[in-house]
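For the sake of transparency, this paper describes our internal protein records without simplification. An entry from our holdings is shown next, in its original layout:
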Amino acid sequence: MSSREQILASIKQNRPTLTPLPDLQSFDVDIDLKSKFVETLTGIGGMCTIVNDFETVKDYLLEQQAKGLSVIQGVTELEGYNLNTYSHSHASNLETIDTVLINGHIAVAENGAIWVREKDILNRLIPFICQNLIIVIAQKDIVANMHKAYEKITIDEDGYGVFIAGPSKTADIEQSLVIGAHGPLSLKVFIVQQS
């Protein structure tokens, strides 16, 4: 018997017994998803507004445009969709963008994160280079935790996607918190109750 065969036989003979995997059903929770999401998001520096329909979002968009701000509008349910215009833009062309409105796909109550698919942003720079990011999410798309979120993500269809949670922040060794250090200065989420 060769040394290779001796080693493999020894490994096979001394294999540990199999241990059953834990039951993942224990992650089910019974909470008010909308309230928990709002609490978590505001706790990490985001803002949240609960609306009945898209009219309030439309009014907010019009206010931003009336201020003369450069706005990318990527919410398909609203007029003035112009996200396509920026799908191949470089950072140097996007650096003056003030406000971006996009659709979110899944919101996670436990950590305030929102899953944003590439087809909802078209250009991976857009949600990170703007000054103010607005995400619109349907109330029915709020889940309790990341386990439930991963069950809903269809990566074979979505391709690239990203979880976004709150405005960007960093803290140095002196524990000075800086919001908007390397991304949007603010994140506002509209939860649409009827969609």
Q: What stands out?
A: The chain has a mean pLDDT of 90. The domain at 32-192 is CATH 3.40.50.10420 (Rossmann fold). The CA atoms of residues 54 and 192 lie 7 Å apart. The chain has one domain: 32-192.
